[in-house]
Amino acid sequence: MPVPPVSSHRPTKRHWLRWAWIPLTIVIVVVLLRVVDIDRVGHELAAADLWRIAGMLATWLLWLALRPVRMRMLLHATAPEMPVGYNDTFGAHALGNALNGLLPMRAGEFGMLWVLNRRAHVPVAGALSAIVLDRLCDLVAAVCLLGLAILAVPNRPQAVADGLSAIALALVTGVVLLAIAIRLRRQAIALAGRILPERWHGAVLPRCEALLVGLSVLARPAVLARAVLMSAAIWAVTATSFTLGIGAVWPDVGLATGAFTVGVTAMAFLVPAAPGGVGIFHAAIVFALSFFAVPAEKALAFALLTHALTLFTGLAVAGVWTLRNGLDPRRIARESMAAAEGDDPPA
Questions:
Q1: How far out from the chain centre does Cα 330 lie?
Q2: In degrees to the nearest 10, what's the CA dihedral of 307, 309, 313, 315?
Q3: Cβ-contact 107, 99 below 8 angstroms
Q4: Percentages (nearest 5) of helix, strand, coil residues in the chain
């Protein structure tokens, strides 16, 4: 099983990882509190345009419905022997998204793996490959979106373009290294065998090899084309949702503003963050909107509004799905967090 049960009598060896995000989050929150007027933020929230908020909610729900379509397509490529229905892929994404909003260390990804393996009976390698591909598609799409949107930033500083170039270079390097590892699979596994402790070899190395096999599906033109089209649709909806939400507090914005803000926020999540990205999510939005002359109070109001809306609707959707399908969300959350901390990783 991908996420082994954790005994309540054995303490987790890496509990400190749960709290590693706290210092950074404290610093970010303190800085935000020093640069904004909290009373004005509250006023901006109270004055927000309800119709645009409704539009943001509608596009957010559309986003929730679209993402499982891409995941199901990727699962069909990585685990064709085990067809997965939309209900299970929807539940995996909804639950993973909700857990990421509540737990640190991206534990929601392990929640997705839990659902796909234990409920939909997808082999671990196929499910893990699809999840990694799903996140890789998001990363590439976010960089491309940010690259296009940055052209619309007025008086953009050279540092912003340089930062994007550095991210793009790192992404290209990572993709090239991954392609080499897939191409030279046996050599890559041999290298991993020299790095990992010997006691992990029997369980970890076969799964690493199966993962590389699964990732190779993007070499198929049909799979790649569908992934590109679905990713473009998903991120266009995301940018639209942000544009509507920003417009609720600062109407003088366009789609490029929403796209740029989405891209910056996505890059911020590359930094280990608190559950739901508390702090870094809000700071990234304030930073991105500052390039469009949006006052910090209005930008933070939008960030708080977006965070609250996506968190609570995400939790509601995931809660309804788990109850309707007879699952125990507390057990999934507990085992996902244990896996994220590294408890019994090779089991």
A1: 21
A2: 30
A3: yes
A4: 80, 0, 20
Tokens representing residue 187 in the block: 């050599």
Q: Are 271 and 261 in contact (CB under 8 A)?
A: no
C-alpha to C-alpha distance for 75 and 257, rounded to whole angstroms: 33
Q: pLDDT truncated to tens, each residue of the chain (347 aa)? A: 344 444 344 444 456 556 667 777 788 888 888 888 989 999 999 999 999 999 999 999 999 999 999 999 999 988 888 889 999 999 999 999 999 888 877 888 899 999 999 998 998 888 888 898 898 889 888 888 888 888 777 777 777 777 778 878 887 888 888 888 888 888 888 888 888 888 877 777 887 877 787 778 877 888 888 998 999 999 999 999 999 999 999 988 889 899 999 988 988 877 766 777 788 899 999 999 988 889 999 999 999 999 999 999 999 999 999 999 999 888 888 888 877 766 544 33
Distance CA 65, CA 121 (A): 22
Please check whether residue 311 is in contact with residue 103, taking contact to mean a CB–CB distance below 8 angstroms.
no
Residues 88, 111: contact at Cβ < 8 Å? no
CA distance to 70, 204, 339, 343, 344, per residue, from 12 (Å): 35, 20, 10, 7, 10
Q: Is 284 exposed, middle or buried (0-12, 13-18, 19+ CB in 10 A)?
A: buried
The encoded tokens of residue 344 equal 């019994």
